[in-house]
Structure formats: C-alpha cells, structure tokens
Specification:
This protein is globular. Helix 1 packs antiparallel against helix 2 and helix 5 packs parallel to helix 6. The termini are far apart. The protein has seven helices and 15 strands. 34% of the residues lie in helices and 26% in strands. With 270 residues, it is an alpha+beta fold.
C-alpha cells in the first residue's frame, strides 16, 4: 500500500490558514501604503504594480508553502507555481492597486483555496476598513467573526450596482457605452476600484449587484465564495460560471434581471 495520504484537505483548515496569511499580508501592505509609487506597468500604462504588490505576494507565497509545501499557487504577480498537494491557492496580493497607490482605503488582500477546480475556502482582508471576510464552501461566510447574510433582492430599478473598468482604451470605451444603457434602468452606479471590496461589500449590503468584464480568477475567487455563501449568485455570461468575459453577482431574483439587461448590450465583449 502507498504511504501517501490521499485524504482531501479539510476546507475549514484551509480557511483558517487563508485567514492568518491574509491578515498578516494586509498588515504588511497597509504599513507600506504611505509614499508608495509605481514600480512597473503590465498590460497597459494604466495597469500599474507597486513594490508592495510584489512584496505582499512574496509573503503570501512563503507562508502558504511553509504550511503546505506541495500545494500549487496562482498569483497575480508571480504567475502559477505547480504542486501536487491537492490544493491550488489563488492569490491577489493587493486588489485595487490604483486605490492603494493614491492612498485610498478600498483595496484588499484576497486568498482562495481550490480543490479539484472548486473554491472551497477563502479570506479577504480589507485593512483600511478594519474588515476581515472568510468563508467555507457550504459553511457560510463571516465578516469580523459575524455571520454574513446579504439583504433581500430589490427590483432592478431600485438597485445600486457596482462595476469596474478595464485597462485598455477600447475596452473602456465599450464599457462606457454599456453603462449609458444600464444607468436609466437602475437606481445608480458605483465604481469603487476593487472587485474584492465590491463583492464583499455586496455580501454586506453596501450595494445590490455587481458586474464587470475583464476580471481574472484571482479577482473573483475569494470574494466570490464569500458573496455566494452570503446568498449571492455569482456567475458569468449566458448563465455560465464567472469568467474573464464577464462576472455578474446579485441576489438570484435580481441577478436574472441584471443579466437580461446586460445580455443585448455587449457587456461581455469589447
């Protein structure tokens, strides 16, 4: 018989590790925010990275691999590091880097744990708000230790909808065109600058719905589980899962109305 333990990891243990590491990483990033400057750009001149993005991800990777050395990690800054430990960690060291660069509070550290491609545990630290979110698949989500339950859905015309914009001029122009057709049908729009803060805020009742094109797995994995465990439906185009093409999130009744509004507008294409 093989001596290898094939028992799947306990998602609660993964959640606890994610919480510890996100908390430490959030403290590191918060301590380095004052005076930070652009270190580099990525996909476009507006897609910036700071030295603290990289330092924070390095800390996260080192802590996760110290605890679980065989696991895989996908990070926004460091790419993918393969492993055979049965878990893949999906990491955004600072979601909302432009907010971070300008000294604003709405940015967060997001860490999710996947087993067989499914997110089973998550933590999001929003240090400048003093908030720590956590979730386990099927076990609910919490903010600062208190159970989260998103408020009931409202009609589309009464919905406060959060969104974001991409880094390429062509995509931004299309997103602006979509927005012109969305605004007349809703209460108002909010553009916060961090999908992690938007989605956890949705779970907390700070808005009623969210949509954005151009996000990546590290943007939605952790906050998406937190939102879904609070009663939010998180999906993508044509009733599918979240994707780079489009992420939509709302209470199920509102989700359908927002999805129907967005579908003919080209919200999932440039």
């Amino acid at each position: 018989m093989s001596g290898i333990d094939t028992t799947p990891p306990d998602p609660r243990v993964l959640r606890d590790l994610a919480v510890r590491v996100a908390t430490e990483a959030g403290e590191l990033a918060a301590g380095g925010q004052a005076g930070v400057t652009v270190l580099d750009t990525k996909s476009s001149p507006t897609d910036v990275v700071t030295k603290m993005d990289r330092a924070t991800e390095e800390l996260i990777r080192s802590r996760l691999l110290a605890a679980r050395p065989d696991d895989a990690i996908l990070g926004e800054e460091g790419g993918e590091e393969h492993g055979d430990g049965g878990v893949r960690w999906v990491v955004d060291p600072i979601d909302g880097t432009v907010n971070y660069l300008y000294g604003q509070p709405d940015w967060g550290v997001a860490i999710a744990a996947e087993i067989d491609g499914e997110v089973v545990a998550a933590a999001v630290s929003v240090p400048r708000r003093g908030e720590l979110y956590e979730a386990v698949l099927g076990g609910g989500s919490r903010r600062n230790g208190e159970a989260l339950q998103a408020p009931p859905a409202v009609p589309l015309e009464q919905a406060l909808v959060a969104t974001g914009f991409g880094y390429f001029a062509e995509r931004r122009a299309q997103q602006a065109r979509v927005l012109l057709d969305v605004v007349p049908h809703i209460r108002d729009i909010r553009r916060g600058g961090s999908a992690a803060v938007d989605l956890t805020g949705l779970a907390s009742g700070r808005c009623d719905a969210f949509y954005e094109r151009g996000l990546h797995a590290w943007d939605w994995s952790a906050p998406g589980l937190i939102a879904s465990e609070a009663g939010i439906r998180v999906g993508g185009p044509n009733g599918g899962p979240p994707s780079n093409d489009l992420v939509i999130a709302a209470r199920p009744e509102l989700y359908d109305a927002l999805s129907a509004l967005l579908a003919p507008l080209g919200a999932d294409r440039d």
